[in-house]
Amino acid sequence: FTRLQDLIAQNALQGKRVFIRADLNVPQDDAGNITEDTRIRASVPAIQAAVKAGAKVMVTSHLGRPTEGEFKDEDSLAPVAKRLAELLGQPVELKQDWVDGAGLENLQAGQVVLLENVRVNQGEKKNSDELAQKMARLCDVYVNDAFGTAHRAEASTHGIAKFAPVAAAGPLLAAELDALGKALGAPARPLLAIVAGSKVSSKLSILKSLADKVDNLIVGGGIANTFMLAAGLKIGKSLAEPDLVEEAKAIIDLMSKRGAQVPIPTDVVCAKEFSPTAAATVKKVADVADDDMILDIGPETAALLAEQIAKAGTIVWNGPVGVFEFDQFGNGTKTLALAIADSKAFSIAGGGDTLAAIAKYAITDKIGYISTGGGAFLEFLEGKTLPAVEVLGSRAAGSQ
Ligand code: 3PG
C-alpha cells in the first residue's frame, strides 16, 4: 500500500485536504476525563507530519459504540480534541455535522480540525457506500492510521478508501503491520507465544492459528486450566471449559508432531475463594484439592518458562498468566514480564490486560513493540486479513 511518508516525500500534500482516520477510542471516567491517552499520543506523528507538509488536516475517529443517528453528550470527542490540541501544541476545533462539508469550506494549510464521532453517522457501521462517498468528497487524500479499528469494515475505515482520490496508510498503521509481520511473518526462532486469558473459547482461533507457527506456546489463566484437564490433571473448582478439552488435546498433539511444545504447569498458586484478600498457597499440580481455585502459575513453572523465554528469538505476548490485579497471584505474570524485559528477542505485546501488566511491572521500554490494537491485534494473531488494510492494498495494486 501507499504510505503517508511516500506522499510527503513527493510533496503531494501541500495545500491538500487530508482526511485522517485515527483510532482515538480512549477510556474515560464518568466525568468524561480521559484516563489513558496512549492512542491519542500514537496518532500525533501522522497528524504532525501532515501539518508540516502543508496539508489542511481533518482527523476523525469513533468513540465507544454509540447508536447511529442518536448523538449523546458522552459520545463526543470533545475531551479528545482538548487533549490532542495539548499534544500538538496548536488549536484543534471540533466540527459537528460535518459529513456534507459544513464548516470545512475554508480550512487553511497547517490547520487541524477534529470531526465529531464518526460512528454516530448513519451508515458508518454497515459501511454504506453513500456515506463513504460523502466522506471521500471531503478530501484529496485519505489516510488510515487507525490500526485499532483495522479489523472493522466501516465507512471511514474501508468504504472511503475505495472512493477517495488517493488512499494511504499512516505511520502508526504501517508500524503496527511491520512489527506484526516481523513477529509472525519471518520470525527469528524459536518463536514463543504467550496466550493467556480466562477462556479458551474466546482465543481458540488464535491458539489454533499459532499452533501451526510457534515453537513454544505458553498458555495461562483459565486457558491453562483447560489444557491441564487435557493433560489429565485435576484442577479443583478452577475456571475451565471442559467441553473444549478435546480441542486443547488436538492443539497439544499438533504441536508435538511438529516438535513444538505447550508446557503444562508443574506447580500452581491456589486459593479457596476469588478475592483480593484470599490466601495464596503454592501447590504441586498433583496436590490441587477439589475446593481449590488455581489463580496463578507456581514459582517452579514460572522459572522454567522464564528460561524458555530467555532462549526465544521472537516473543508474542497476549494475556497475563494469573490474576495479577491481586498481588499474591501476580508473581507468575511478573516473572514472565521481567523475563521478556531481559530477553534479547524481538517482543510484541497487545491487549488491554497485557498492557496493564506491562505498566504494573514497569517494563514498557523493554518491549520491542506494544500494539495499540485490542480486537485488531487478536484478529491479526488469528491469521485473519484486516479489511481496512486489505482495501489499501487493493487500491495500491489497482493504481499500478
Ligand atoms: C478498540 O477499542 O478495540 C477499537 O477502538 C475498536 O473498537 P470497537 O470494538 O468498538 O470497534
From TrEMBL:
<dbReference type="InterPro" id="IPR015911">
    <property type="entry name" value="Phosphoglycerate_kinase_CS"/>
</dbReference>
<dbReference type="InterPro" id="IPR036043">
    <property type="entry name" value="Phosphoglycerate_kinase_sf"/>
</dbReference>
<comment type="pathway">
    <text>Carbohydrate biosynthesis; Calvin cycle.</text>
</comment>
<dbReference type="GO" id="GO:0006096">
    <property type="term" value="P:glycolytic process"/>
</dbReference>
<protein>
    <recommendedName>
        <fullName>Phosphoglycerate kinase</fullName>
        <ecNumber>2.7.2.3</ecNumber>
    </recommendedName>
</protein>
<feature type="binding site">
    <location>
        <begin position="23"/>
        <end position="25"/>
    </location>
    <ligand>
        <name>substrate</name>
    </ligand>
</feature>
<feature type="binding site">
    <location>
        <position position="119"/>
    </location>
    <ligand>
        <name>(2R)-3-phosphoglycerate</name>
    </ligand>
</feature>
<feature type="binding site">
    <location>
        <position position="325"/>
    </location>
    <ligand>
        <name>ATP</name>
    </ligand>
</feature>
<keyword id="KW-0418">Kinase</keyword>
<feature type="binding site">
    <location>
        <position position="119"/>
    </location>
    <ligand>
        <name>substrate</name>
    </ligand>
</feature>
<comment type="similarity">
    <text>Belongs to the phosphoglycerate kinase family.</text>
</comment>
<keyword id="KW-0808">Transferase</keyword>
<feature type="binding site">
    <location>
        <begin position="351"/>
        <end position="354"/>
    </location>
    <ligand>
        <name>ATP</name>
    </ligand>
</feature>
<dbReference type="GO" id="GO:0005524">
    <property type="term" value="F:ATP binding"/>
</dbReference>
<dbReference type="GO" id="GO:0005829">
    <property type="term" value="C:cytosol"/>
</dbReference>
<dbReference type="GO" id="GO:0004618">
    <property type="term" value="F:phosphoglycerate kinase activity"/>
</dbReference>
<keyword id="KW-0067">ATP-binding</keyword>
<dbReference type="InterPro" id="IPR001576">
    <property type="entry name" value="Phosphoglycerate_kinase"/>
</dbReference>
<keyword id="KW-0324">Glycolysis</keyword>
<feature type="binding site">
    <location>
        <position position="152"/>
    </location>
    <ligand>
        <name>substrate</name>
    </ligand>
</feature>
<dbReference type="GO" id="GO:0043531">
    <property type="term" value="F:ADP binding"/>
</dbReference>
<feature type="binding site">
    <location>
        <position position="152"/>
    </location>
    <ligand>
        <name>(2R)-3-phosphoglycerate</name>
    </ligand>
</feature>
<keyword id="KW-0547">Nucleotide-binding</keyword>
<keyword id="KW-0963">Cytoplasm</keyword>
<dbReference type="Pfam" id="PF00162">
    <property type="entry name" value="PGK"/>
</dbReference>
<feature type="binding site">
    <location>
        <position position="203"/>
    </location>
    <ligand>
        <name>ATP</name>
    </ligand>
</feature>
<feature type="binding site">
    <location>
        <begin position="62"/>
        <end position="65"/>
    </location>
    <ligand>
        <name>substrate</name>
    </ligand>
</feature>
<comment type="subunit">
    <text>Monomer.</text>
</comment>
<feature type="binding site">
    <location>
        <position position="39"/>
    </location>
    <ligand>
        <name>(2R)-3-phosphoglycerate</name>
    </ligand>
</feature>
<dbReference type="GO" id="GO:0006094">
    <property type="term" value="P:gluconeogenesis"/>
</dbReference>
<dbReference type="InterPro" id="IPR015824">
    <property type="entry name" value="Phosphoglycerate_kinase_N"/>
</dbReference>
<feature type="binding site">
    <location>
        <position position="39"/>
    </location>
    <ligand>
        <name>substrate</name>
    </ligand>
</feature>
<comment type="pathway">
    <text>Carbohydrate degradation; glycolysis; pyruvate from D-glyceraldehyde 3-phosphate: step 2/5.</text>
</comment>
